[in-house]
Amino acid sequence: MKKTIIILSMLFPALAVAFPIDVEKHLNGAEIDIQTLDLGNNMASASLSNYGQRAAVCTVRFRNGPEAPRTRKARVAAGETAHLTAKFNNSVIRMRVRVECKLD
User: Fold this and answer.
1) pLDDT tens, 77-92?
2) CA–CA distances in Å: residue 7 to residues 12, 13, 15, 18, 75
């Protein structure tokens, strides 16, 4: 019984399959940190943290193969964080995220 529990507990990390996320950054002088996250089978998230002294306007484009890309825009004030999400109709195999920012 003890061996069965150990084997099952070792398999749990193998069951949690996340899709890879490729990030392309075009920050144009803005001091933005980008964190991406897989929120499930067909959702992705990007968190934009502004460490600069000026606000930035950012456009994030989530792309998943043949589906139409999802574009989200946010104004990130100095010292603030913006969270952007995108949901797709099909299961995501690989997510490509393009972030373009400019100082406000």
Assistant:
1) 999 999 999 999 988 8
2) 9, 11, 13, 21, 48
Question: Which domains, ranges and CATH numbers included, belong to the chain?
Answer: 19-103 (2.60.40)
Does the CA dihedral 11-13-19-23 come out positive or negative? negative
pLDDT band at 104 (very low <50, low <70, confident <90, very high): confident
Reduced to 3 states (helix: H, G, I; strand: E, B; else coil), residue 5 is: helix
- Residues found in the chain: 104
Instruction: Note the pTM of the prediction, 2 decimals.
Output: 0.81
Q: Is 24 exposed, middle or buried (0-12, 13-18, 19+ CB in 10 A)?
A: exposed
Residue 101 to residue 60: CA distance in whole angstroms? 9
Q: Which residue has the tokens 């195999």?
A: 93
